[in-house]
Amino acid sequence: METRGELPAILFIYGDDAPDGTHDQISQALSGHFSLAMAKNREEGRQKMARLGYDAVICHLGQSGQCDPKALSELNHAQPGAPLILLSDMDERELIRAAEISGADDCLRGDEICPVRLPRRLRLAMARHSRQKPVWHELHRYRDLARESPVSIKALDREGRVVFVNSWHLNTFGGGQVGAEFYLGKSIFELPVAQGTGLAPRLRELLQGQPLSAERLHVSRMAGGGSGWINLRGVPLFRHGAVEGAVLIGEDVSAAVRAEKKLVEARQQLERRVAQRTHELQTASETLRRKESDLLNLARKLEEMNAALRFVLEQRGVERKDIEDSFTSHVKRVLVPFLYKLRLSGLTFEQKNYVEVMERSLSQITPPFSRRLSSSQLGLTPKELEVAHLVRDGKTTIEIARLMHITPNAVGFHRKNLRSKLGLTNQKANLRSFLQQMSIH
Q1: Which residues contact 417 (CB under 8 A, 6 or more apart)?
Q2: Domain boundary at 106, 136, 166, which?
Q3: What is the pLDDT of residue 80?
Q4: In angstroms, how far is CA 39 from the centroid of its own chain?
Q5: What is the largest CA-CA distance in the chain?
Q6: 76 and 107 both lie in a single domain
Q7: 334 near 394, Cβ under 8 Å?
Q8: What's the CA gap between 163 and 99, in Å, rounded?
């Protein structure tokens, strides 16, 4: 039965489990006051509301009293300009709770269906709804925003029961495994946000009018299982100076917290590796310093040994030079003069050969200085060789003349020949210094 005219249009959704005669009672009670339309279920009711539009909607909850908060909320949202009135034989407190959860404007029990009471309740609901129509539209607009908001939003009544939860909360904290029915109608103190975080005292303060704020709150037991971290804000809602309810806004920061924890762990690991590497470098540096110290000590010891060896070699060189000089001096002063005089004493040919052999033998056993002076390239005479040895030994011209039994002029003549044959002509080089250099090298 569906009539529409100048009378306000009412849609009655009675369902398959409505008591027999319920729609007839409604029809008789509203006859002459309202234009009534019927729908057998909520889906048909939503279709009619979308197509025609009504001034009010009455929805029967069934004999069992089962309340589907999500379906009722969607039904109420289908035509926000029309008041929603719930009808049921369930307990009055449960009926009022269902009305609050779904956002219904009023609720009736079956025994209130009569031609007097039902039209009056409808007119009151429609008048109240009409006065609040702008607010109602804003409320549903904000509900749309809240429903699609990328944060968790739960609305509580004054007793802390959940009357609204958005889809983002269901997907994030419920893991898509639970629906709105898990939350709607439940006390916030029964949910993990209160039980697993120790926030129960602060939630009670929120319902008393104190704002709530909690950063990085660890929730060990979420609706869909698992744990995580949230930033939670609670805002109390006031009406005529009294707390009417509250809104909880939660942001899932689990990914950020886990990323930060990994960053901290990576930093700590890096610091440990740097500390370990620093220790290894310090140990290597200490080892290098010890080796460097050992090498320096070894170098000092080698230097000391080289100095001692040089001293020994120098001493041996001095001793050897003294021996050579003594031997050479003896040869020059004793043997060579006699051999020279012997050569000039009228020897036979055979005797002269013996003398030459002796001279050659003596020249071979004399030191390098004597051999250098006796070199055929220089062409020094025996007298010049003897003068050269005496000059090198530091003898003066007079001392050389006395030793060789010749005149000082003869010594000067021999010295001049020595400078010429040694390449010292027109040079300021000292003859004695030059001869000493020859004895060294």
Answers
A1: 381, 384
A2: 136
A3: 62
A4: 65
A5: 189
A6: yes
A7: no
A8: 10
Does residue 36 sit in the same domain as residue 90?
Answer: yes
Expressed as residue numbers, the domain containing 106 is 9-136
pLDDT value for 193:
73
Q: Rounded to 5 degrees, what angle do the CA atoms 339, 344, 347 make?
A: 90
Split at pLDDT 50, 70, 90, the class of 285 is: very high
Residues 355 and 433 in one domain: yes
DSSP 138-186: HHHHHHHHHHH-SSEEEEEETTSBEEEE-HHHHHHTSTTSS-GGGTTTS
Q: Give the Cα separation of 83 and 104 in Å (integer).
A: 7
Looking at per-residue pLDDT, the higher value among 285 and 97 belongs to: 285
Whole-angstrom Cα distance, residue 361 to residue 219? 116
CB 227 within 8 A of CB 256: no
Write the CA distances from 83 to 9, 28, 102, 108, 155, integer angstroms.
12, 21, 12, 13, 21
Higher pLDDT, 120 or 62: 120
- For the whole prediction, is pTM greater than 0.70? no
Radius of gyration of the chain (CA): 65
C-alpha–C-alpha distance, residues 54 and 60, integer Å: 16
pLDDT digits (tens, 9 = 90+) for 128-159: 766 655 444 445 556 667 777 788 888 888 88
